[in-house]
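User: Fold this; tokens only.

Assistant: Input:
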Amino acid sequence: MIRLNLSAAPRWIDLGRGVRVEVEPLGSFIDLAARAELPVIEPDQLDLPTLIGRNIAHAKAVARRAIRAWEGVADETGADLPVSGPAIDALLEQHTDLYVAFARDYVRAGAALVAEGNVSTPSPAGTSAGAETTAAAATASATAALPA
């Protein structure tokens, strides 16, 4: 079964340290547009630092598309900082705990819903686990006639 969120209304996520962000619902457009920004990784570049960097870049790209408003983010003088791409990047880059909260509560939560859609119930007549067995077990006389 797939659970659909039919609400297109933004929601607030508490990232900690008094920071809240208002985000659009994570959908295919936001995720695919963010992935399109990422550089291609060649097979010889599949090391841990590269993959971590790619995950961070993906979360930032998603955040730039999804975050519409925030509370608790100020510039160096203490004045409220308006939402912008560079400010979003700086927030997630400079504060690892806020990046982790955003990745967990928004990016991964959205990915979990996508993954949920990849699970289906067993087919009653297909090749899946729910299908009935149609082959009969071989008998000793049938297997004795096979060449060795």
